[in-house]
Write a structure and sequence with these properties.
The protein is mainly alpha-helical. About 75% of the residues lie in helices and about 5% in strands. The chain has one domain. It is built from 6 helices and 2 strands, in the order αααααββα. A two-stranded antiparallel ribbon has the order 1-2.
Length: about 180
């Protein structure tokens, strides 16, 4: 029985399988485009999950209500008028509840996404450990050299895709 459990959860075998599958993408330029593709796929996945699981229109409405309340509260506080401050303070609890619900909706998507993300990130980080996967389009002293390791290249790609994909799919409530 113990061997059966060990065989079912033989993580080294599973990890070895993925490591072997990644061999064609071990060197530039394949690694550069592979990680770029992974960043795009993960960004699309996250944003599609957001689109399916979050009511974006409701989130925009809540953000608008919170912004309106903040303006009222700041105006009341600056004026020093106790009646205005009291009126704005009474709305604070309901506004905080709306904001809390909105945050929870976003967190649900994060919980779904984080498990698979960390598994993928762990495998790729082990595979590309201490390897240059891309040449930097620019250099930033201390932060980015000419040759980029996996983590730097992934973060750069991820930031590049994140906002445009969220805008295209209409899941960024700030826009």
């Amino acid at each position: 029985m113990n061997n059966l459990v060990n065989d079912m959860f033989d993580l080294s075998g599973i990890l070895g399988f993925f490591m072997n599958a990644l061999v064609p993408y071990a060197n530039r330029p394949n690694s550069t485009f592979f990680i770029l593709s992974i960043a795009l796929i993960l960004s699309l996945t996250t944003n599609i999950l957001n689109r399916l699981l979050i009511d974006v229109d409701r989130m925009k409405e809540v953000m608008s209500q919170v912004a309106t309340w903040r303006k009222e509260f700041d105006k009341a506080r600056k004026s020093g008028d106790e009646k205005l401050i009291s009126k704005a303070s009474k709305k604070q609890k309901s506004v905080m509840q709306l904001q809390s619900k909105m945050m929870w909706d976003r967190m649900k998507v994060s919980f779904i996404y984080l498990g698979p993300f960390w598994i993928i990130f762990y495998i790729l980080n082990r595979f590309y450990a201490n390897t240059s996967v891309a040449l930097s389009p620019f250099t930033v002293p201390i932060l980015l050299g000419e040759e980029l390791p996996f983590i730097s290249w992934y973060i750069l790609c991820s930031f590049t895709f994140s906002l445009p994909v969220s805008r295209i799919l209409g899941v960024n409530p700030e826009t």
